[in-house]
Description:
- By secondary structure, chain A is of the alpha/beta class.
- Chain A is built from 19 helices and eight strands.
- Chain A has a domain at 23-176: Rossmann fold, CATH 3.40.50.
- In chain A, 56% of the residues lie in helices and 8% in strands.
- The longest helix of chain A is centred in the middle third of the chain and has 25 residues, at 177-201.
- The two termini of chain A are 40 Å apart.
- By secondary structure, chain B is of the alpha/beta class.
- Chain B contains 15 helices and eight strands.
- In chain B, the strands form two sheets. In chain B, strands 2-1-3-4 form a four-stranded parallel beta sheet, sandwiched between helices. In chain B, strands 6-5-7-8 form a four-stranded parallel beta sheet, with helices on both faces.
- The mean pLDDT of chain B is 94.
- At the A-B interface, helix 7, strand 4, helix 8, helix 17 and helix 18 of A face helix 6, helix 7 and helix 14 of B.
Amino acid sequence: MAMNDQEILDQLNAEANEAFKALTIAGVNENARKGRPFIIASDDVLPEISVAMDLSISIMTVAGAMGTGGPGAAERIDKATEMGIENRLCASVKMAAYYLQAGILPVPDMIITTNSPCDAVEMLGQMMENYQPWAKVPKFRLDAPHGREAADFAYFGSQLKEMALAIEKVTGKKLALKRFTEVAEESNKQAKLIMDFQELKRAVPCPVDQDMARKGWEMARWVAGTDPAVFAKATGWLERLVEMTERRVRQKQGIDGVAEKVRFLWYDVSPSWGAKLFPRLQKELGAVCMMNYYSFANWLPIDTSSMDALLQSAAKKYLMGTPMTRQAMHSADVYCEDIVRICKDFKCAAMIMPCHIGHRDTNAYHKLAKDTCRANGIPFFFIGCDVWDERYMSPDVVFDRMKTFFQATGLV
Amino acid sequence: MKSGLRSEVFEKLSRIAGAISSPEVMEWKKKGGKVIGYTCSFVPEELFVAAGMLPFRIRATGSQDAGKADDYFEAANVCSLIRHTFGKILSGEYDFIDGAVIGGGCDGGRHILDNWEKSPAKIPFLERIFIPHASNELTAGYFHDQLARLKARMEEHFGIKIGDDKLRDAIRLCNEIRGLQRELYAFRISDNPPITGAETVAAIVAGSSMPKQEYRDDLKKLIGELKAVVVPEKKYTARVMIVGPGHDDASLCDIVESLGGLVVADLTCFGGKVMFGSVKEDGADPLQAIADYQVLIRPFCPKNLGAHPSINKELFAKIKEFKVGGVIGQIFLCCDTWGGEIHILGKEFRAAGVPLLRIERECTSDSTGQLQTRVQAFIETISGGAL
């Protein structure tokens, strides 16, 4: 018997949640035992390369972020502060620093550090490089430029090439043109699916919770990075999501149990305590979040015409399409133009600026974002919370403030 | 800044360092000279000197209030040095500059440009330059291209030509100044130097705030005077080194030195970092030589991935050479890069038996009382008794 939409959603969520275990601290330790060359990166490294080279790459900040949503998170974050980590540092990086210093991470075959997307990650990279038990582990450093011109993409593409050569030297695995092309083609298929999902999401009422795009993105990028077999599975996952969403749009069905009244943009990452906020906003106020940094996932296609084209377009995809790197690494124009485009394309009646306390970039854009919204007639609301630590501002307080804002602006 | 140094030339340098604009800069402008502001020590002054301009390091000296900058930057989560610097820009204190180049050294610093562009503080020439975060041939090549682009934009905007000969002259002048600054620093190797840490900071900061040739001549004169002076016998309770960002004002040095200690060395963005080594003078491409210097020779900044071993090496060499008894690791709140670096150094200092006082503070000197108590306790600890 065919499954109904709720059953399909439940299944997609169950598969995603199962896959995400590979990203946790326990998963990182598991990944080290899978028999593939095992690399730890400070932040995102393109999965197209790791899949094509049959590697397992675990990401420190992702493990940290996953940890902030788990049991005992507060104690571990505090422990990092006690260890002497700067108090106002992003809590996901603090958690990652705790994992590193507590000695509970396996020794990788190689480490890759980067300055993307922010100084905190760069700092984490310094800590990884100088962590004594990893002193002899080969290292590679990726310098992500802040520009968005062809020269910047070429520069980063050259570094990706160097990175592949460095990995080959350590692991013996090669970045072969044929395999890299196959993986890029699969990646392009995923990109098309996710853009299809974004198009479908424009429908009123919103057919499916926007956070499904984030889950698809994280499976295809981060989980696939740890296990190449997940890469193709992520395509299948996205196909089922798009198929179901198409059907719901045709039937003019909104999110189950939600009487949509207002659509808004949550312009930051999805908080680890989001489950305590967004369902309440939907159910109690009819306020539907249409987009966050990760569900935006501006996937760019990879040019498969030659090895150089693959590397340079992959570089562009990394710099302009990776959530947080897109928003944090570039000029304020990118950030502000995205606000206007997302609000227009997805009919968002309001822009919420959570302004995670650890995001130095967003905290530098306060007035620019507000002025952009004002100029475009978009009601703007600034919160100032910690997306990884609900003790800073509880989900209940965030809910109350957003409710007051929506009511005061007449949106609900 | 408190100083016991009796020297006209020092008083001049100290006055220039203690304010933003100065009569010397105004005189330069009166003669038709251009002034170009810049942030971050990785933006090479040589390019501006070669353009016949006065490079002026944008800073927040003396600021007690970020003012309108806090409308732009969220006060609780962005480094105070950035906010206060931008506050000075908004208040009009930098209206005398003809252009500015913003270096992308850190996240907060980069966004000065984004906010400046959209602010009422209009400036005719405002450019950004991306400073690499890793040190290798590829990154040095990228930085060269950044400099070439900046040079072309300067030439177009100001209607000038910056030739290789002018670049080579500028390199020689800046190298000479770096050499003199190192000579000035070296006075404090002795137990009883003729110049204090606070006085040295002032003499170095002035160098990025006045015409270069004039500064070179003043520095030579000051060094000559210091060599000749008979220093009265004085016993310092502790020899201290300061490590961290910023340090354009001497308030922390003042505290250490008012308690009987002496700041003998530092590795900060306005101090020890700016005078390290030299740009190659005889290279075929002077722009590449400048890029190599900034990216390969002096990557003493935790914004550089892999910089820590060179920071460690430089610090331990200075600790030995300057007979440092303890280190103050200064972090401005929300400075992620230095926050991490001081954490890493803390472990190494502990292992080596080097006392470290870690201070997280705002860039202003408005919490002096609290700082004084902590510094006093630290000096007592390293000097082995109550002051």
